[in-house]
Amino acid sequence: MSPQQWRRDVMYIHQSKAPLPGSPADLLEDVKKFKINKGRPAPDPVKIMEELGLSGEFLQRPWAELSGGEAQRVTCAITISMRPTILLLDEPASGLDDEAKKKFEKVLAESNCTSILVTHDERQAARVGSSLWKLGHGDHEKPLKKE
């Protein structure tokens, strides 16, 4: 796999709101221009955004005006709409309430991506994980049983 294919097929969603310039729509326009995406369908995050409780109008808002939870949902929608093979997620729903987290989990499950999710929310891990590992200070990598 070339580095370009890796960047297209393996995507990372982080917890923090990225200090991006412009709007999510600007980011989408940049992504469409990447050579590796030539011939692929353009990402269209609007349906996913609506499933996450946001209208497509959020694409036009400057990143700086989005709350942490709004930015997380828009970022997730954009990333999932790019149809990666693997998603690496670091607390992608930390800024969401329980209802919004469950919507995110449903979207993630329907994405058909192999996902590695880091979360401190053990209830969320139990809901979405097929293999659970607890790591941390003093813990030795130990599998947790799924309830």
Total domain count: 1
What do the pLDDT scores average to? 88
Helix amount? 25-40%
Q: What would CATH call the architecture?
A: 3-Layer(aba) Sandwich
Q: What overall form do the CA principal axes indicate?
A: globular
CATH class: Alpha Beta
Query: Which structural category do the helix and sheet elements fall into?
Result: alpha/beta
Report the span from N to C terminus. Answer: 37 Å
Biggest sheet strand line-up: 1-2-3
Major beta sheet, specifics? 3 strands, parallel
Number of strands: 5
Low-confidence stretches: none
Please report which band the strand proportion falls in: under 5%, 5-15%, 15-25%, 25-35%, 35-45% or over 45%. Answer: 5-15%
The ordered string of helix (H) and strand (E) elements is HEHHHEHEHEE
User: What is the CA-atom radius of gyration, in angstroms?
Assistant: 16 Å
Number of helices: 6
Name given to the CATH homologous superfamily: P-loop containing nucleotide triphosphate hydrolases
